[in-house]
Write a structure and sequence with these properties.
Largest sheet: 8 strands, antiparallel
Keywords: Membrane, Transmembrane, Transmembrane helix
Radius of gyration: 33 Å
Structural class: alpha+beta
Oligomer: single chain
Protein name: DUF1349 domain-containing protein
Number of strands: 21
Amino acid sequence: MQATDKTTAVLRREWAGFRTRGRLIAIAAVPLTVILVGLLYAFGFSAGTCSEGPVEVPCPTDPVGPDGQGVSDTFSFVHRPLGEQGSITVRLTSMKGIITYPPPDHDEIVEGLVPWAKAGIIIKDGLSQGSSYAALMVTGSHGVRMQHDYVHDVAGSPRGVSAGEPRWLRLTRSRDTITGSESADGVRWTKVGTARLPGLPATVQVGLFAASPGDLTLVRTALGASLPESRFTQATAAFDSIALDGAPVAGWSSRSIGRQGETDWERFHRAPGLVESNGTFTLTGSGDIGPVPEGGGPGGPSMSSTLIGVPIGAVIALVVAAQFGASGGRALAARATVIGGTAFVAGLVAAGPVVLAAPAIIRSRGVSVAAVPALTELRVVLGVAALLAGAAVLALSLGALLRRARAAIPIAVSAVVLPYLLATLPLFPDEVARWLLRVTPAAAFAVQQTVHEYPQVTALYAPSGGYFPLPWWAGLAVLCGYAVAALALALSAAPAPPSAAAGPAAPEATRRGGPSAPSRPGRSGSG
């Protein structure tokens, strides 16, 4: 009980020492800065306008998938209605395409398919972009795949399609359940996968599709950073032996989902859409069906990008903590508790309003932001708070070790914030940026990441695109390791507290090196 009371008294003493007007104002500036920068960032977005002849109209909003995430949903579609029970079976006999201006010379259009060009069969909840779907396809370089609702991908056989090796595809619907199967000869079938699409209506659209995403190439800067560029591509697939079961009597309809036909290649060489001849459907399309990765593009910003003010707030917290550590005092553990707790609360106050308000503001301005589960939002808010707390303890320990705030502050900022800025700005090669966010305390900024890397989407998955090499918990552990190590060093170097058994302080003459001489009584009178 006495030990608890003594610990409480020490914490109160250190809190009273921290609670100066200057420090309180500085620590209050942390959440104010993060909130102000985040809201200014959100209000800076605009849906913009597009020309419709002589009239300027709002640009179409980006499609949003069933889970609220921004998606790509552009392809050529030949379709018919399908009921609650039924199937489609086709034979895909050929697949070819073009790639415009690929490296190394960027001076010609070549034949070929990008790795995730895709053609096959699809069951879709209507014709609107972002609606639920399940598709079975052959890809440019990844064999047969079954994909549904943009983010789900299951691999089938690794073979593609060639002149002497067609591929049979079948999708079977039983209410909300879609099953995909493939065959080399149309007799022996292999199941690829099953998708469940909750809320699928009684009548859906079923048919053939073709799509081809942009060809990603990387341009190197002077220091070796990668800047992505996307080039137009197109895929053309030939289908025959088309059989439908459970579909009402109706003709085929052909249309483009999303915007196609706007490039010179499409206008003057091969237009998107369907060519039918003697029971063979030849379908040409571009675009993609899948999630939009973070880092811009048609999906807009992510929720984590609204926390753009966190590095600035971290710098303020580092300065306050380093000055507090360099001001002296033996109760370093208590000081670390005070500064860590204060920075944690400041982080909660900073991240909470931004995470809740900024995405809503961006959406209100006509720009889509990927929806994030409530638990993920809570994890980000707590993660930012833990990031600031760990960084503050590290700076406090450096201040106590060096005994000078002017020396501790630049070291703390260079260890925590500078690597993050160098990694996320397109300055250095991607692998250098990844290592900066693996081995330095800046790894803890991974707590802000909210989106995933999708193998079925070709993109620049690098720190400059908003992707961290470590999961959030591992990045936070790296910072905590540095903070604990620095605090242990500072505690070992701190002077020992005075012993209670030593008694009162010795007289001044004793501290100078010898005992004090006893006073002698003076003599009175004369002899």
